[in-house]
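Components:
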Amino acid sequence: MKDDNKITQLMSRQAIRRLPHYLKYLKNLDTSSNDRISASLMAADLQLYEGLVRKDLAAVSSVSGKPRVGFKIDDLISDIEHFLGYDMPNRAVLAGAGHLGKALLCYRGFESYKLEIVAAFDVAEKLIGSEICGKEVFPIEKAGDLCPRLNVRIGIITAPAAVAQEVCDILVDGGVLAVWNFAPVQLGVPRGILVQNENMAESLAILSNHLTEKRR
Amino acid sequence: MKDDNKITQLMSRQAIRRLPHYLKYLKNLDTSSNDRISASLMAADLQLYEGLVRKDLAAVSSVSGKPRVGFKIDDLISDIEHFLGYDMPNRAVLAGAGHLGKALLCYRGFESYKLEIVAAFDVAEKLIGSEICGKEVFPIEKAGDLCPRLNVRIGIITAPAAVAQEVCDILVDGGVLAVWNFAPVQLGVPRGILVQNENMAESLAILSNHLTEKRR
DNA sequence: CATATATCGATATTGGAATATCGACATTCC
DNA sequence: GGAATGTCGATATTCCAATATCGATATATG
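Structure:
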């Protein structure tokens, strides 16, 4: 539950990706009759291996399960949320208010992950000054100035591929520590800055390959 | 180059994801002075391990590289495209014409992957019958009928989580063989149907975890 | 109160992909 | 023509995550 001075667990990228699934599952549980859950049941429901769930939980949580009883659901939830940093709001800006940018600006689901998009940037004259779903659009030149002032740590890049690197540099300059990149380019960033790519081409490759195999 | 009767290579998911990157890199090369490329150079430029690139190329391509010369660029391009099925158009429908759905309907980048979204489905009265970036919106009930007629093989789900499974069932019923799922739910499908999840929560977990570590 | 059992946590095994190594060989250069 | 070199393909090694195994233990049951 607490015990913040425990050594930072080094979790694999894949393990971190499982955490939101645990979280969602746990939150959907009905706690009125039973406020406990076993790793065995979680594994069965989520179609994962038992030991894997136990290892993941052990890595993020300081509470331990009890034989024949399991884990306290609330403790797990708050431990996972704490580990993921969902108890501390993350402020983000978005660069590139095209179709996709608008979709992200208007998406309500981010709230539960404590991600707050506080402003958008673009170059289009007619967008600048306007509001998209309550978020003001600024000229990209303002980013270097605005990001530190708004205490932004995440940059979302939905700009065209051709300018993505340039935009990325500006954001990183402005103090962004993590970049969520939707442009189909490999971004160069200084050491210590994380780039999380959302690459549609990769997904399409898998889809298309599957269909190709089916045809044979 | 050809040699279609060679045994279907079983590539790992990760290997398939690298293919679009190779493809993009190869297409951006300047072939006017030199129409060949070495795996060594590709690896260096793409920051991959040499042997890995060779193995990937060997898996998708029937041409082999020559010592001190490398591979013919054009051959590699057409082999990768063929392996991914980009020489055969893939027809798709999209279910859920909200913000994200619209963004995908209007995205031009899919053309180069030979993905063609031919229609959209929704439940909103005011959308039905309208066109979004040239694609007509039909009521979801029409999907079972329309998908086979349009010879659709890919279903894109951008519907709300609550109805995603229901929508998925309809599409699969309509003959869809691969589902590209943007809804934050784990979809159940019959054996043989591929579900490719585009899960924002997973990405956010990685971003947020990175920031949390930075803070320490 | 004793036994059975579900569940835990730790440790070993397996599996698969990335990395390293190495001999072969086509071109280039002297 | 012969040596040097860049690149190939194949094989061996390493590494890491997923899976399996097992003893320990808290609760339930009789």
